[in-house]
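Task: fold both queries, return tokens.
Query 1:
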Amino acid sequence: MSERSGADGLSGWPLVYVVDDDAGLRETVTEILALAAVTAEGFGSGKSAQTAFESARPDLAVVDQRLPDTTGLALAASLKSQDPDLGVVVFTGYASADNAIAAVGLADDYLTKPVLPEDLVRNVMAGIDRTRLRRENRRLVARLQEMNSSLEAAVAERTRELERAHKRALEDQAAREQLQAQAERERMENRLHQSQRLEGLGMLAGGVAHDFNNLLCVILNCAAFAAEATADNEQVQEDVGAIIKAAEQAAELTRQLLIFGRRDRVQLKALDLNVVVAEVQSLLTCSIGEHVQLVVHPSAGLPPVHADRSQIEAVLVNLVVNARDAMPGGGILTIELGVTHLDHEGTGLLPPLSPGRYVTVSVSDTGIGMDPGVVARIFEPFFTTKPQGHGTGLGLATVHGIVTGAGGALSVQSAPGAGTTIRTFFPAAEELASADPATALTPGPGGRGETILVVEDEPAVLRVVTRILQRNDYSVMAAANGTQALALAADREFDLLLTDVVMPGISGLELADRVRQTHPRASVLLMSGYSADLAGPGHAFRADLPLVQKPVTERALLEAIRAAIATPRGNSMP
């Protein structure tokens, strides 16, 4: 066992194996980790890493998917067969949905080259922490088993010396304590496993939604082009209308996936949940029908919460509709608001939350209830107990993504035949609740001969965006990546940079900064199928760079462009 990782794998300097056939990349990763006080050893093949693994167990293995003698996933499986607690990060330049799905259960993380140094260090440190936590848990379980065995032996020896009545009392007490400890341990382990499973599903859902948003952007706009070109053909109009409607429904599903994966763009502000519930109450009443009675209990002196209003409304609608469906024969649906203070004991019941003051929203029904097996899975995407065709299984997954994304958590109380109560916890905000600002008037969508530099690495999306702009009186310079865009910008002037965010090589954020240095008066508008948290700490979208979310329709894109161009820019960097 390596001295650096400690004899028990829990102490000393962290040790990381970097397995990649690119010697230059191995050296770069090793140097980056060294700056973070992490010792890394590089290996050019799976066999060399396996040989070293027999004598020194690392805290984490960072493996390339394509190796000269094996694959990264096969190597991960081999290493974890010898050390099940070892964390593995797949680090590849050949990302695919199949590889990402195959990595679930084998890898703790899945990184696509290139990756920013701070993102690499953050993911590596998180992987080391997970490995050490698992090893510590294994050690504690073994120690607890030893202590239980010793305790049982001591109790048995002691009870032989006591009177029969005293012996019976001691045995009963020991049995109760053991059962309580076991039940608590199992409950905490189950909660941890559920949280890890939901987090993994969220990462996968966000990635899939991003790819679908690019496809839907092309489908929606090309269908709109076809509708315009066949305005006098009623049959074609019906077909195109069906395509557009289906694409819009698919776009809403991808938005729910992004919310579950906490990758949806949000507008946070201080909200009074009493006001939000009161203003949406009429909509909720219409949603549940006449056979269900809606009862609302507001709370006086309720502190505000920091959240996105539209997402809070989505939480209420999803919870209310879910409660309504649990009462097919009618019943009472209750929304109750309140405030609670969680101490250390309360935090143990809700692991994601820190001690403090929280605003609660409880939605209760008198419906059929759920058994523990269903309760354990209700926040998983696409899980539903409804008949086929009567639900997507994304409603409660969306609720989970919104609430946890706002720093909160949920609790569920339910039993068959006894109804259900889902309680949400939101951290109380310090500032006063803000009023909704008046809607600003937007300029007309058409162009006025301005020149736009469009940068998009997806060819189909680039063609659609170019066509939209050219048919609306804009002059377009099209580029498939940041390098081409910089070459076009070197000797030409333009009014707006319209760029995708996630691109190979130069990202949209880096491109915007470099373009602003040479074209300080040019406006910038970002496009993305992801949202703000994708770029990582220190590289999230900034307030001075507006974003249009894919899939985007022609009118929405034109309105965003006019607003961006109309926003004055100075001669200096922000």
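Query 1 returned. Query 2:
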Amino acid sequence: MARPRGVSVGIALLLGTAAAFAASLPPRIGHAARHGVSAKPIRDLKLPPRASAAPGARRILDAPAVPRPGSSASPRDARVQHHPGPSALDPFLNFDGAAMNDNLPFSGNEVIPPDANGAAGPDHYVQAINTVFRVFDKAGNLVLGPLPNASLWTGLGGVCETFDPNTPFVKYDTLANRWFVGQVTFDVDDASVHQCIAISTSGDPTGTYAQYDFVIDVASGSPPHPIANASRFGVWPEAYYMTVNQFGDSGNAGFGIYAFDRAAMLAGAPASFEYVNPGADHPQTAWGIPSDLDGATPPPDGSPNFALALGASFIDGSPGDVVHVWKFHADFANPGNATFSGPVDVPIADFDPLDCGNPNLGKGCVPQAGSSQLIQAEPSLLTYRLAYRNFGDHESLVTTFTVDGAAPANRAAVRWLELRDPNGSPTIYQQGTYAPDASYRFLGSIAMDRSGNIALGYSKSDDTIHPSLAVTGRLVGDPPGTLGEENAFFEGPESLPPVVGFWGHYGAMAVDPSDDCTFWFTSEYIGAPAPFFEYSRIGSFKFPSCTSGPSGTLQGAVVDATSGSIAGARVTAGASETLTDDFGHYQFLDLPAGTYDMTASKFGYTTQIVDGVVVNEDATTTQDFVLPAAPTAVLNGVVRDGSGGNWPLYARVRIAAPGFPGATLFTDPVTGYYYASLVTGISYTITVDAVTPGYASAQIVLPFDGAASLADTVGAASAANTGVQ
């Protein structure tokens, strides 16, 4: 199949040498301190209530440090997208996930933030938050739970079984048809840090699990030491890779990478890990994130896992805005053959950093309706996941981070990027900052389906709404660097009270292996205290064009009969939509074979319709459109006093309509007269504000056919009044 057009905007710089990482090779080796297989399926567990702190106690995880910029400068981000494209994701299911109140029967307390995480398998969706998990069927019905996360290690002994673990990760290993659950915990007796991993023994998430307890740090060990709640996981053919922030005797120590022996754990056998340390040479570069396989096509044989981290002058002293790329390939049969290299520094478009304050002091930067508490957006670090796909003709990685989308206003927005050729000459294929309006968007998670379509989920809030969950996306053929219309599919009923500003370190966007098309997104929201107020929501979405069946390509150009190509025209083919690029070209890639009714439209032109366009399997169909200019007419009028004086007013007149970029004009200060040339055949919303103080705004909706007459609308005293003459 043809792949989408695009422009590479980055080049690879500064390849780290093997000598630079002599301290990391060969890797440090560790072994599971405990391992076993659960004696009975977790669906058969009968767990008694556990001893706890006082009911309703809140245990707050320290917020790992996030980099803070210096004083704001002039806006630098040229990739801010203020107007969304058409490729909207329509949710067909959303339902409640686990809640902090689920802890009450087991421990009576909560560990905040929730850190909602989940994955879809062939028949189930499994979701975990800090200390509890639930299993659902694909219709959103509860199958199992809530149960404590620690119950997955029942019978193993040690702290994985007996102490509430945190920072949960749930993954479905598509290549093996197994479930992976990883959590970290801490032994208060000897101050050791344990990574707990459970691997299902079948594709049934309610069955038995191979259980592992890896001691990844001891108090008496040499630095660096892992920061327990600052880890990320990725599935790869030879290992389950984990990145984790570190600290040393003098503070930050970058991040480390662990590779856990996947083949051994799938077999339920004794397992080891290998550890390398990018932080040895880059102590200020934190929040690395490992690549995480999506789809049934593995990376090329022998491919390393890729770990990315964000770099900038205020983060780690990088001379420009970059993503650092490290490569680590573990070898458990012969650890001396393990390879580790990097970083390759890949330039990204300049971004404006968001200053969200110190999270450990309750600081934040995101407003919400009805609460004085500002939410912590955790900016300037790559957010979970780093989703990887092998498309055959190219390899892609996608990830996100939070920036200031309206510098210097300090308004949170999501920067997203797609990096290609990570094992060759990594480059940024496309990127953008999604900020279509004045709301704040943060804590994004992103993934690609089998066709290369992208879905981005995130939290959204401002001073007029409660924190909400939203998704947007793009078709593989959309103009590079653009996302479609937003779907805010769930608004929480409450706002975060003034207790703490934490909003979780991650949400999770996953892809359903059943069709490799359906996206599943989970993150937190705020509800009524009972006694806890942190809840989570799960939603699923799909682009209509994504299919595992026969497909083809539909492309063409949209032009003006007189002036050439039309950029930004909306083209539909059945339920699929896209926009033309700067050259008037559009394309639908991997469109299901069939017959489509098509439209092409843009404000200022007459919409054209073509029915019965046939798309054949593995073939390219071309359908061009010529759009004639739409007829226009002059709308004019006078703005007058509406309190009885009827005198002309100097006023601002704003004209808006769907697809219309909008117009703002001012009346003549003496006569109150205004005029505008407008396309006919649509309705305009006209908003009038007097420049002179003391007048209320007036707004009217005018169906404009070129001959319409707008009668004077006399408002209450001191109200502005418009009329067309």
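Both queries returned. Flag for query 2: Residues 385 and 570 are 31 Å apart (CA to CA).
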